[in-house]
User: What shape does this take?
Amino acid sequence: MDVRGAGIEREYRSRRKTPRAVFLATGLMGLESVYRMAHGHLLPRWSWMPLLGFWVLVFARVALYTWRGRTLVGVRGITLRRAVTSRSLAWRDVYDIRAVPVPRAKPPARTCLTYVYDSGGRRFLLPHLDDWQVTDPHAEIAALREAAARHRGMTFERRPETEARIRRASGHRKAWERAVTGGLVAFGGGFLVWVVLLITTDHPPTPLLFLWIPLGTFAALAALLNWRWESQVPTVP
Assistant: This one.
């Protein structure tokens, strides 16, 4: 897509489909995990229900995002249409458009995602504007920024206060991601302890190991990591 011409009306949507083998393998893996939990003798009878709900939500979101998700670009701004919700940003509210590499991703997976940043430093993912759907997303973004500058009435320039907000938001996202990882690790450790206690005792503390310890670990890590980030980054005026 060449946006360096006179027009700026563009639509980025899912054109290159994910191989069916990926969906099939993911579906079989989900069904296998649900079946084993539902028929396992060591697990509580209710344990398979949250897992089944999780897989249903995952597939529903992927299907909706593939069918409905797209990025619409016009003279008034950018519209992000996601799986369920939509958001529009006028050009005057757009601070920048950037390609962000995906950590540890390797082809054929997406290695680059595109985000739009508003004047407050918040970022929003641009659906399907990535190296999976676009041949050269970096060139596409550069051309898009050039064309958009004419409608903004100004060029894209870095502002220290906005850059500080972007760094602060990035740090908080990493803190939440690590807190989630810690909660999942606690859940896995609790599962191993539960199996041992199930063999050695009559009544293992299932809610404690499967619910309260993981939630407590997540909450403690989230508070600690966010506080640590706040203490290291100067307050944004």
Q: What stands out?
A: The first strand starts at residue 10 and ends at 13. The chain is about 55% helix and 15% strand. The CA atoms of residues 16 and 133 lie 6 Å apart.
